[in-house]
Design goal:
Radius of gyration: 23 Å
Low-confidence stretches: none
Number of helices: 8
Order of helices and strands: HHHHHHHH
Mean pLDDT: 78
Shape: extended
Largest sheet: none
Length: 192
């Protein structure tokens, strides 16, 4: 079993770089042909730069853009040739806006195909969770300090509905998913 290098190191970036399908990314996120100058960076280069906040300690596009000019390992992972020519934050945000769920699922299926094909000999079925439809962690779910203050006069029903605290639940959504096996040994059912 091969042990991965530490996250964010040059060796880690070299290890995962070979698994990124640049041709598929260029096909999925191709720029529309227009009459102006051709784009400065290919979709695969912008995708690789967009991955850097996930695989390095730098967690923002602003910091990544600053580090690209200084660190050769980040530029070689992103396949950027020139130290002075790096994508800016606006380019990265515009590229991220072009990434829709359907294209990301196609990319995910392409990356999972070798993993799932290698498990056909296993006697048990394995399910992988797809978390693309789960809600993001936002301020709406943070703990808040609630102070109970009694009103001076009765609250009308409509006003009471507005002041009531919304109940939140954490459960798994019933979303359709696919997996790489045709036969299941023990059929089972999940009901709420």
């Amino acid at each position: 079993m091969k042990i991965l290098p530490a996250t964010g190191t040059a060796a880690f970036l070299e290890t995962i770089s070979v698994h990124i399908p640049d041709d598929l990314i260029n096909g999925l996120f191709a720029f529309k042909a227009s009459r102006g100058r051709p784009p400065l960076f290919s979709p695969s280069q912008l995708f690789r730069v967009s991955l850097l906040p996930l695989v390095t300690p730098a967690r923002s596009f602003n910091l990544i853009v600053r580090l690209l000019g200084e660190q050769r390992s980040l530029r070689s992972f992103a396949r950027l040739r020139n130290r002075l020519s790096v994508p800016d934050v606006r380019m990265l945000h515009e590229f991220r806006d072009r990434m829709d769920l359907g294209k990301l699922r196609q990319l995910n299926q392409h990356l999972l195909r070798p993993l799932l094909e290698g498990t056909r000999a296993f006697p048990k079925t394995v399910a992988l969770i797809d978390s693309t439809d789960l809600p993001a962690a936002t301020n709406a779910y943070k703990k808040m300090l609630w102070v109970n203050i009694l009103p001076a006069e009765p609250i009308p029903v409509r006003g009471a509905a507005k002041t009531a605290r919304a109940a939140t639940t954490l459960d798994t959504r019933s979303t359709r998913f696919g997996y790489g096996f045709a036969s299941v040994l023990l059929p089972s059912c999940w009901r709420r």
